[in-house]
Each structure stands twice: as C-alpha cells, then as structure tokens.
Write a structure and sequence with these properties.
Structural class: mainly beta
Strand content: 35-45%
Number of strands: 8
Radius of gyration: 16 Å
Largest sheet: 5 strands, antiparallel
C-alpha cells in the first residue's frame, strides 16, 4: 500500500497494486477528515497530539509513535485514495532517524496529491515542508533493476530534530 512510513517500514508489493489486488479497505482507521490547510497552519489532529502531555517511557526507547493511521477510501468507480497520518515523539538522540517519511506510489497509475511534514518543538512549528520539497525517486536503483514503475517521495528532518520534538507527516495518494 502507498503509505507514509515512519517506523512502520512496510514492504510494498507493486505487482499487487498494478493488478488491482490490495485495492480493498485493508486498513480503515479513524474518520476521514479532509482539511484545507493554509500555509503555516497545523491540522487539527496534529495540534491535538502536540497538546497531549508527555508520557513516561522506558529509558531505552528512542522514539514513541503517537499516531500511525491509514484510511483507504474506494469510490463507486473503484478508484482508491489512501490518506496516511503519522506522528512520532523523539525521546533520545537514537530516535532522531524516526523524523523521516516515505510515501510509495505507482508512476503511471497514482498521484501523490498531498505530502506535508512538520517538526514541532515545544508545541511550536520548528520546520514544515510541503509536497514540492519532498525528494522523489524511482525504486529501480534500490531493487537493482533498470526500470520500475514504483516511485517514492521522501523527506527527512533528522538533522534538525532534537529529543523532545514531534515529527509528523500527512500524505494522500490517489
């Protein structure tokens, strides 16, 4: 499934997507909320997460996933739309690598219509990037192939993050 990945690290089978398999509501969590965001405005779900008190964790936990939600909606014509929201609190320096997101899609069939990422520090926005700042690349090199229809968009805030920050992303693939 096209999914914004933080700690989920899922392996996508592009053949199942190309053949139409997997276009059933496998993961349908929460309510479908469509938010139109103005520049610099945080979505309501992220403001709510950022306002929650910090819970204690074991000393060896590098990061805590606050939200990992995928909503799959199939319209009456069978077209699928995946919306994914992910948020993680960085607990230690070892968790800085979790300030990273990937969304996979098929080059000819899918469109990444939204890709936003935020880094929050003390409840305030430390950094935000929209779709045009995400790095877009083919998975062919990673697979050792000459060509692949699977592409990914990727963003990383690990160099800017510090323990205590919240990294979040929201993607939409149609």
């Amino acid at each position: 499934l096209p999914i914004c990945q933080g700690c989920a690290r899922r392996t996508m089978n592009p053949n199942s997507l190309a053949s139409g398999k997997g276009r059933v509501p496998i993961l349908a969590l929460g309510l479908v909320l469509v938010a139109t965001l103005r520049a610099g405005e945080l979505p309501k779900w992220l403001r709510t997460l950022a306002a929650q008190p910090v819970t204690s964790t074991a000393a060896d936990v590098p990061a805590t996933v606050l939200l990992n939600e995928t909503i799959l909606e199939v319209d009456q014509w069978g077209r699928a739309t995946w919306e994914h929201r992910y948020a993680v609190r960085i607990v230690t320096r070892a968790g800085l690598s979790e300030a990273h997101a990937i969304v996979a899609y098929l080059d000819k069939n899918d469109t990444v219509s939204a890709a936003d990422a935020w880094l929050l520090r003390n409840g305030n926005v430390a950094r935000t990037e929209s779709d045009n700042k995400w790095f877009d690349w083919s998975t062919a090199d990673q697979q050792g192939a000459i060509f692949s229809e699977t592409r990914v968009k990727e963003i990383s805030f690990h160099e800017d993050a510090v323990p205590g920050d919240i990294f979040a992303c929201e993607t939409k693939v149609e």
